[in-house]
TrEMBL record:
One of its GO terms (molecular function) is oxidoreductase activity. It comes from the Bacteria. This is Methylenetetrahydrofolate reductase. Keywords: Oxidoreductase.
């Protein structure tokens, strides 16, 4: 066989394996837990994706992260593109980069006018000093502007492993107080609210946190954040920067294993544990998966396609029959 022929044969075998892996998920509980998953993009990364329909199932909720310095025009343009492609778009509204209520009202109007948006992830934002009068998600919600605009879904941040920006001295007293306020807000309004959590690498802290919230009377569903496939060094960098807590030990342990050091991390283990917990505890607040594509949206979407069965089939593949 010629070198060219050998190369073609190897590629054919590789592609055959990929197709079969995508068509035959190995874990029914994992498939169920991944059904209806959400994912996050930024305008600059979205601009590099030629066709989202080739990556994501139709109707996938796509959060658009608003990083400080990103023009609102780019955010709205990305939202409109994804909406036109048939996705359920939820842009971020970070309190600390919004200078005043007039700006917030303008952003809401732009999203609605150009992309038909009626949902948002309301959060404090990752900057140290507020740009203006807002410093918390609660202040944004208190303006009443989302309600006036007819927003139907308002998600807020959740921190299973704590948040040192909110509780700088450790513990979670302030975090829990904020969650009680958000629960009360949900109870007195028509908004459908959920907690979108920071990513973690171990199921047990998430499960313990969910159980604690439920024991204290909170009912907000939890959309568990996990990191998509990525190089170990990349994940450790993001984890430290984002304040990931005890579950960081999972990555540290992996870094000590030379057999895994060069392999990309995948969220299979943590999601299987969460899927098992949900199957055994259907009343758990843990509701579904949210993926942070820290290693790239393509690799994250392909991982889901290969593990979620019919729930992970991209829209373009469904349309092609």
């Amino acid at each position: 066989m010629t070198p060219g022929g050998l190369r073609e044969a190897l590629m054919a075998i590789l592609n055959f394996g990929r197709r079969n892996a995508a068509a035959a998920p190995t874990d029914a509980r994992l498939e169920t837990f991944l059904n209806g998953y959400s994912i996050e993009v930024m305008p600059r990364t979205a601009s590099k994706v030629e066709d989202f329909k080739a990556l994501l199932p139709r109707g996938t909720r796509v959060y658009i992260a608003h990083i400080d310095g990103t023009p609102i025009e780019e955010m709205v343009e990305t939202a409109a593109r994804l909406t036109d492609d048939g996705f359920d778009v939820m842009p971020h509204f970070p309190a600390r980069i919004i200078p005043d209520a007039a700006t917030l009202q303008d952003w809401i109007a732009r999203y609605q006018g150009e992309a038909g948006i009626k949902q948002g992830l309301i959060l404090a934002g990752g900057v140290a000093e507020p740009k203006g009068e807002f410093h918390s998600s609660m202040q944004l919600l208190e303006t009443g502007l989302f309600d006036q605009a007819g927003f139907t879904h308002l998600h807020v941040a959740g921190h299973p492993e704590g948040n040192k920006d909110i509780d700088p001295n450790g513990g979670d007293a302030e975090v829990m107080e904020a969650l009680r306020w958000k629960q009360a807000f949900a109870d007195r309004t028509d908004a459908q609210m959920a907690l979108a959590t920071q990513f973690a690498f171990d199921a047990q802290p998430i499960i313990a946190w969910a159980n604690r919230l439920q024991s204290e009377g909170l009912t907000l569903p939890i959309h568990v954040g996990v990191a998509g496939p990525a190089k170990l060094q990349t994940l450790i960098k993001f984890a430290i920067a984002c304040g990931v807590g005890p579950s960081l030990k999972v990555l540290q342990k992996r870094a000590m294993d030379v057999t895994k050091l060069v392999l990309p991390y995948e969220p299979t283990d943590v999601l299987r544990d969460l899927a098992q917990h949900k199957a055994e505890n259907p009343d758990s607040l843990i509701a579904q998966t949210h993926i942070f594509p820290l290693g790239g949206i393509k690799s994250a979407a392909e991982w889901v396609t290969n593990n979620a069965g019919q729930a992970g089939v991209p829209a373009a593949r469904v349309a092609a029959g």
